[in-house]
Amino acid sequence: MRAGITYTQFDEVARRAFVEEALQDGDLRGRITNTSRVAVRTGLSRKEVARVRLAMSQGEVPTSTYHIGRPARALQIWYSEPEFLDEFGKPLDLAFDDEEPSFTSLIKRVGGDVPAGAVRAELLSAGGMIELTNGRFRVQKRHFIPSAFNEDLIVGFAFIVAPLLETMRHNLENPSEAFIQRVSYSDHLPEESRLAFRDFGYQRAEELMQGVDKWLGEHDVRGETEDVERRVGLGVFYFERPNAPKQ
Asked: What class, spelled out in words, does domain 69-139 have in CATH?
C-alpha cells in the first residue's frame, strides 16, 4: 500500500505468479502442464488460467490502466483529457466542486464509489497536488507514488527479502544440502543492553561483511569469463520489533 499498489493490482500479479510457478513443473512424463492441471494446482478456474496464459504469451504487463489505483488514474486523466487542460495543454487548477470542470468531476471520470474527498486527501498527502491560497488544487506529479515510498524499498526487496526467501525455499526442499541460515535474538534485554547490542551487532557485521567483500573481490573473475551462471552472496541484517502481547 505504501508503494501505491492496490489490491486489484496485487491480485493480478499474484494470479500470474501462481500460474507461472505451476507451469514450471511438468507431469510425470515430462510434458508441459496443461490448463486443467494448472487450475487444479492453483485453485483458479480454467477460464482464468487460460486468460493469464494468453496474456503471458502475448507479453502483456499483468496490470492494466483499469486496475491502477484511483489517485494514479486521476492524475492520468488530469494530464491527458482536454476537459481538464487549458489552451496550452497544461492541467487546469481545479476547484473542489463549485464549478465545471472540478476536482469532483475529475474523480467521477475515474469511476468507482470512492468519494472525491478521500482521493483529495491521498493526493495531498503524497504531494500529487497542492491546495492554493484561493482554494483551488494544482497538480504536481504525473504519477502517484505515496510519500512513504522510496527506492531503498525496491533495493531491500531485490537484495535482501528475495534472496532470504530463496534460501528458505532451498533449505526446505534440500535439507541435506542446506545453505547457511542463522538467527540470534533475545526477548529479555533491558533498554541499555538493547542499545548496546545495536552497536555491537553493527560493528561485528561490518567486520564480517568487509571480510566477505575482500574474499569475493579476490575470487571475482569479472571480465575474464562469461561462464558464471549464479549470483552468490551472504547477507546480514538487524531486526527489532515488539513482542507479541501476552495472552
From this structure: mainly alpha
